[in-house]
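User: My collaborator sent over this chain with a note saying "see what the structure looks like." That's all I know about it. Can you take a look?
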Amino acid sequence: MAKILEGERIGKLGMLALGCSATIFDSTRQKVLLTRRTDNGRWCLPGGRTESGESVVETCLRETLEETGLEVRMVRLLGVYSSPHRLVEYPDGNRYHVVALNFEVEPIGGTLAISDETTDFGYFSRDEMAHMDVMETHVERLTDVFSGQLPPFVR
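Assistant: Without extra context I'll predict from the sequence alone. Here is the result:
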């Protein structure tokens, strides 16, 4: 299970990694799809790390399909997150300063299901999420998602 370490410019102690997350609204746009991770049991937006030779759009579409069973299309960029004061440390000792892009996507096919990376899923409102164990790095993204701001956040 990865640990989130925070401290003044702690990101410089890790390798740089690029990741993407997907925000899928329900039909009312009042709830967002979250998945529960198999590795730590916490809730998060679907997403993951960009692989070499892959665009961020390809990452977002691939990770969403792998984790939810949904085929999606890109709608828009919601935010860019790159805090130099955060480091993700994995059990194998690898440490990453993550730059994450959060995109709004919409389903165009597939069937919503769990995967080998997820144990549960559901659409949740902002109020419901306040009582859930959501990953810290995704709380910031979700706060921005529910703000209603149209230009992308850059943090």
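A starting point for your reply to your collaborator: The radius of gyration is 15 Å.
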